[in-house]
Prior knowledge:
The complex is a heterodimer.
Chain A: H1 10-21, H2 33-55, E1 67-73, E2 76-81, H3 86-109, H4 116-136, H5 140-158, H6 165-196, H7 201-204, H8 220-237, H9 246-249, H10 255-264, H11 267-276, H12 278-281, H13 285-307, H14 312-341, H15 345-375, H16 391-405, H17 411-426, H18 432-459, H19 474-489, H20 500-505, H21 520-529, H22 531-551, H23 559-564, H24 567-574, H25 579-624, H26 632-659
Antiparallel strand pairs in A: 1-2
Helix pairs in contact in A: 1-2, 1-4, 2-3, 2-4, 3-4, 3-10, 3-15, 3-19, 4-5, 5-6, 6-8, 8-11, 8-13, 10-15, 11-14, 11-15, 13-14, 13-18, 14-15, 14-17, 14-18, 15-16, 15-17, 15-19, 16-18, 16-19, 17-18, 18-22
Chain B: H1 4-24, H2 28-56, H3 65-95
Amino acid sequence: MLEYAWLIPVFPFAAFVLIGLLPKRTLFWEDGGGYAIAGAAGAFVLSMFVVWDVINGQTLTGADAPRTTWLVIGDFEVKFGIWIDQLTAVMLVVISVVGTLVVVYSGGYMHEEGVGRRRYYAEIMLFISVMYGLVIADNFLQMFIFWELVGLCSYLLIGFWYEKPSAAVAAKRAFIVTRVGDIMFMAGIIVLFKYVGVLDFSALFGQGSQSIVEQGLISQDMLTLSTVLIFGGAIGKSAQFPLHEWLPDAMEGPTTVSALIHAATMVKAGVYLTARTYPLLVQTPESLLFVAVIGGVTALLAATVALASNDIKRVLAYSTVSQLGYMILGLGAGGYLVIHSQIGGGYAAAMFHLMNHGFFKALLFLCAGSVIHAVGTNDLRLMGGIGKKMRITSLMMLIGSLAIAGIPPLSGFWSKDEVLASVFDANEFDPVFALLWTMGVATAFLTAFYMFRMWFMTFAGEPRSDFHAHESPRIMTVPLMILAGLAVVSGFALFVGDGFKHFIELAIEPLGIVGEDEALLDIAVTILSDPLTYVTLVLAIVGISLAYRIYYMPGFDRSVFVKGVPGAFHRALDNRWYISQFYDDFAYKVVYGFSLVADAFDRYVIDGLVNGIAYLGANMGNSIRKAQSGDVRRYTSLIVLGIILLLVFMIYVVPWARGL
Amino acid sequence: MIELEYWLIFSSLLFAIGAYGVLTRKNAIVVLMSIEVMLNAANINLVAFSSYYSSLHPDQGPDPSGQAFALFSIAIAAAEVAVGLAILLSVYRRYQTIDVDKINILRW
């Protein structure tokens, strides 16, 4: 079954081509929605078969995978192939489940869009297709191609309502900011290629044999450089500090697109890339530390900004940035554990969080979409009291919020706890991780607070503006229920079969992971008997009750908290720590100033040169052309004069000159 | 046998007379006639040099190539006159004049 995995992206791609090219009459339901659902479902079914095979212990990595030669340059061949391991399987689960449900949900959400639906479905199919292509790629070049295509699709979809200036700006911003990361990724690939000469994962990861450093192909410093650069790509795509500002702006697209970008595709690509390069990362502890610090800083920074956001989607966007920070932090800390104690715990925890986050964040976004669909605004201050009218949506969003806040037994609790536990364990090897652990715990508290601030502002209390909310159609609520179900149960993947942890650790087994033969019950006991678990849990509950006090209980004096927070701090949060502003200032002052100089040089020096020559030619021609008077006798007299002069020259001047 | 110099002087004179006509006359037909005179000056040169060559190399017999060129030239001159006169005719129909000073529209 695994050798047919390359067909997975083909299904959505075929849907993309069909929706794009078929005549309008043959598009049927929702202007191509039927084809889109069929394409997504086809990929879903095939993914599930592949995942089942992987669960049963089969993988397809390295030489036995089907490959095809794509490009031959001299002795160098670029081959395209597929690489299916446990990590790919996790990504396939997330993409196929979330992707399919989002497409189904779009059937209701995009109903009023009219002719734009065709473009929407075509683009979303391409988006899902290239994301599948990204996760099954077996070399960096193939991955990079799909990586760029993901960027392109996100640009198209964020700017879906391109008539709206803010959407067009957000799309450009997402494209340009992620491009900074893409360039770094490319530079990292080039460094690897220059020294090692191959880009295949199987060769680079040195499976079963020596690593590429031990083979003397690349120096330790260069490997560090290239892993940091490749992680730079992940910073851009996964919206990590300092390139995180594009993601909240990307809320300008349809909410379904946000759900897809945040939960299944795009931002998960960065985490996936970091996890995929793990065999290289664990050889470079400096890079791992960098990864962990970036993750920790991002988690805390984004969580603080989410506190002050009044846009329902923006709160969710910052929570995504923050949760991605968790995953990156988990990967960074996990690498230390792999190096020093041969435990794959952090890696497993990060990927576990990725999967769980995929489900509950898709749920949250689709719920937000349902609310926006009903209310017609994104502004939390104008909502309130919707819970009575949209019972299903409010309940589903409550489940999502509890999951992300880390309340047991929902999925977020298990994975977040695992991530924090591995960060705490890494403390043993580098004291920085103690700080990062504190930041992670603080983030957990803030997450619980802002999620419930959002929930209470949206669903509780009295309506604060004039709207007529109504429950969404079933085509939208059913995907919500499925996702809510997954958000509840996906945490128990830890205890199914051999356990999620054991399963995902197989992907990095060649790194010398000592599989801890914990019984599944022991894992639960470890988690539940660890006092640190309760620190996080209590903080989360405190966060929720604080949100309840401030944003729900009537008569509670909120000014206490407003006064409690210094003005400058609140202003900084409102302005997203001025990071966005910094980029704008940088662009306006430095880049724009430089462009002005370049423009002036081009306009006056280069253009001036060209124009000057042309002006000279034109003027000379203008004065000389007067000689063409049309007067025949003048022509003839000039001819005669010329002949005479020529004769004089030949007869007198030439012999005289020779005689000299 | 007339010396070569006389022929050359004669043809130069003819050429100068023709050139003078071209330069000074306004009537296009007279200009055309003057051109014919210049052309014939060149023909005389051809024939004269041909006969001079034969006299320098008596053992090779008379050399016909100069004469043949002259005959060709005369035939071409006839064709040229026909074309020139036809042009003048249509110029006259268009402008009611064949004064070369007045026909000066082919200019900047």
